[in-house]
Amino acid sequence: MTDNKKNESPRTEPVQSATFTNSVNSEIRRAAATGIYDIRGGGAKRRVPHFDDLLFLGASISRYPLEGYREKCETKVVLGTRFAKNPLELDIPITIAGMSFGALSGNAKESLGRGATLAGTSTTTGDGGMTEEEREHSSKLVYQYLPSRYGMNPVDLRKADAIEIVVGQGAKPGGGGMLLGQKISDRVAQMRNLPKGIDQRSSCRHPDWTGPDDLEIKILELREITSWKIPIYLKIAGARPYFDTALAVKAGADVVVLDGMQGGTAATQDVFIEHVGLPTLACIREAVRALQDLGVHREVQLVVSGGIRNGADVAKAIALGADAVSIGTAALIAIGDNDPKWEDEYQKLGTTAGAYDDWHEGRDPAGITTQDPNLMSRLDPIEGGRRLSNYLKVLTLEAQTIARACGKNHIHNLEPEDLCAITMEAAAMARVPLAGTEWWPGKTGDFL
Amino acid sequence: MQVFDLGSNPLRELNATLQAQNSNTNQINWEVQNPRGRHAIAVGLDAPIEVRVKGSTGYYLGGMNQKAQITVDGSVGPGVAENMMSGTVIVEGDASQYAGATGHGGLLVIKGNASSRCGISMKGIDIVVFGDVGHMSAFMAQSGNLVVCGDAGDALGDSLYEASLFVRGSVKSLGADCMEKEMREEHLDILSNLLKVSGSKAKAEEFRRYGSARKLYNFNIDNAY
User: Fold this and answer.
1) What integer is the mean pLDDT of A373-381?
2) Given A27, A103, A248, A416, which is the most exposed site by the fewest CB atoms within 10 A?
């Protein structure tokens, strides 16, 4: 042993901070270099209590199951039965959420329309109005009524199968849409009545009503313009679900669409996506409680979105009281978003398949979140539609499988009693017992 | 002249009747009696008919109008002619908030004053106000012309896009990214025509023009408010 080695003190291993992680530090450096907050697409990426924290109990001696493929388990859902002359009848309790032409390519919108139509469900327009292609390829199309009112007109309004008044979005409760200059092509600019190439920021609140009393009159006006024929949905972000749902009912909505923080957006500030709003799981029971308190649960339908990925998620949302769910991110993945086959190109963009979220830059290798004609042409809308339809059918089959295992002949017969939670947080939010107990945090009564 | 009494007949019947008119109708002239501040009167029309409302109305008079000329012998509540596509709406009295909000086309004339947010998010409509407009008028206005023969309140044209604003009186303050601009011949022509068709006696030369400074069109941290 040399003298040097003999005198050297033992050293601890380098320790990375759990607070200042490499990811956090990289964002600090990016902010310092650019002076602009980080903008991205998608929903919350952080881990939050979610449907994975719930389990179905299945049948047992006290409950008997239905045969997997033979006994019927209905999935039909009717939305808009409260006031509309023509409610929307869907074959499956899964709809396609609002996503704009502009944020998405024309081929992507067509894929969504084709897929939804094949599966017997609806798709939804977004900020920027209704395109002819979208109407043509969607047998049931929900027309969003957004604060920006880009492209809003009475002709398209009357062509819609339902109107969705957008008050909030789970990714950004209190925030408006964002479509940066790279994606404002000639057609997008023309549809939105804006100069080409500008960074377009949609307003965060509606221009001609400011509260629930005004909203009630706005709904009256829209019903008068559409002759009370089509349902009016109200989309709210997961913020104050009990009160927002109650006010939506008071204002006269036929359907409440509730979007949790895992719900995606085309583009907004990362700090908004990760730090504002409630997880989807935390919203559902509160919204259902409001509907029940007002005596309109199932009369005013509840559609839940934000992080729905598989049939189990569908079944869990419905068991907690939703009438249907809506998917956005999952639908984009189904038609090819973030597909590893484009890994080389994701690497060139400084990212990797599965993590690509710079949708606002319009350079999507999969041709979905872009207006670049070359990139767009990579997505075949017929193939995209088929893939989405397949995926929707799998979601439905999976949800039916669970419902049958719980002894239900309609997916709507699932109920909270069919569930337990595997974490305290999920038990508290979903108000179902912690697995192996009869208790959840906040439950009052005879538990000891 | 077709007369409809809202005092004894439901709003649904009025709107259904007016909406059922088409370009070939010979029932051109309509009078609506006893509006009594009701909301959503004469909304969603789509024919070149003339409707005169004999009294004041509530919210959204003439909402999403196409082709029709609607005249109100009184004042109107919030959101008059919201999202109008074409046609004309004339208000003999005053207008509440958000007059002409998001309008894509047509002409809105307010012979009295208009409250706050007049022309908010306008997308091609022309609005002529004989009196004053309140604060935040033409907020995020995208295109079209707002003519104010009186004074404008605080934050005129905040976050303005490509709409043109003409004010004859004082402007209490300009909103973010709104600036005074040179009045050129083509602007005087547009303004003169709007004053003429709306029946105003004001002279185009008496007005100043305001528009977007276009500094907020692309992100720049130094321009953040």
Assistant:
1) 97
2) A27
Predicted pLDDT at A448: 44
A159, two tokens = 């062509």
Chain A residues in contact with B97 (beta carbon < 8 A): 208
Using alpha carbons, select from B93, B42, B215 the residue that is nearest to residue A199.
Answer: B215
Please write the tens of the pLDDT for every residue from A232-245.
999 999 999 999 99
Task: Determine the residue of chain B that is closest to A198 in CA distance.
Answer: B217
| Cα(A102)–Cα(A362) distance, integer angstroms | 10
List pLDDT tens digits, range A74-87: 999 999 999 999 99
The type of residue at A118 is L
CA dihedral A338, A344, A347, A353 (to 10 degrees): 20
Please name the residues in contact with A86: beta carbons below 8 A apart, sequence gap of 6 or more: A80, A161, A229, A230, A231
For chain B, counts of helices (H) and of strands (E):
2, 11
Kindly determine whether residue A35 and residue B221, on different chains, have CB atoms separated by under 8 Å: yes
The top-level CATH class assigned to A52-336+379-430 is alpha beta
10 Å CB burial of residue A159 (0-12, 13-18, 19+) is: middle
Q: Quick one: fold of B2-223? A: Pectate Lyase C-like (2.160.20)
Strand partners, A443: none
Give the mean pLDDT of B155-184.
97
**Rounded CA separation A250/A329 (Å):** 31
Asked if residue A140 lies in contact with residue A116, where contact means CB atoms within 8 angstroms, the answer is yes
